[in-house]
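Show me any protein, fold above all:
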Amino acid sequence: MNKRKPIIIDCDPGTDDTIAIMMGLVCDKLDVRAITTVSGNQTIEKVSNNALRLVSFLGKDVKVARGSIRPMQREIFLADFVHGESGIGNTVLPETDKKFYEKNAVDTIYEEAMACNGELEIVAIGPLTNIATLLLRYPDVKEKIKRLVIMGGAINGGNDTPSAEFNIYADPEAARIVFEAGLNLVMVGLDATHQAKLYEDEIREIEQYGEKGKIAAEIFDFVKPFYVNCGFDGIIMHDPCALSYVIDESIVKTKKYHVDIETQGEITRGKTVVDIYSVSGKEANVEVAVEVDRDKFAKLVKESIKKYN
């Protein structure tokens, strides 16, 4: 049997974060060393409690560490208009006696990076505040991170402003630090995640997969009106798309480009500037997701949730 891949999921649960965490914790290819939280879809208090309750509800013994309360420079910006007041829609997870890990998110990531000695992969599916803080606080950590896979950015238009995707827009300064750090970086942005959708019949199938399937379907149903209003013919699963790449790289096709983060633009702040024609002459620094095998992705989501049944 192949050795399980050590990962940390840095997240802001979050409806689609919840599904990604469910997928990660049940996958026999992954060794989830910790769940770390960051302010994003909701406040740090709400997303941290969501993560803690979710891990307990799923019956997994994984540490949960609270992270950054606010972005590095800008004001706090939330996505409650998508994820609801709680962060996970109408879903109510059972209360838990489980405690947060004694260390904060940044120190936890560093601890695991050192322990894994160059094998740790980080899946960052929220704003990049924790990761940027990690790089500033512990410069030596760069050599210990095998790969950083983020859900964020876009080659084309944004979903929070016409030019910027939410996770990058929520903390552009952090994103710039991360993108300029020289890490082995994979950007799973909107161009890919908008292909990672589930259809109504698939949601109803998942709903039949016991208690965990009902929770997943409840989350899908909550976000459905938002995506219908945006003109999509299915439910878009941004964060599970990034997680699926870590599980099975054949699901997501990437191309390497140079990517910069715009932090000053009046109407482009938070944009991932992807040099698709190499006009800047700068060396490509990011593997950018460009295509998703939708059927293979949906199959992985369904199989993952079904494992809990």
Remarks:
- The chain is about 40% helix and 20% strand.
- The chain has a mean pLDDT of 97.
- The radius of gyration is 18 Å.
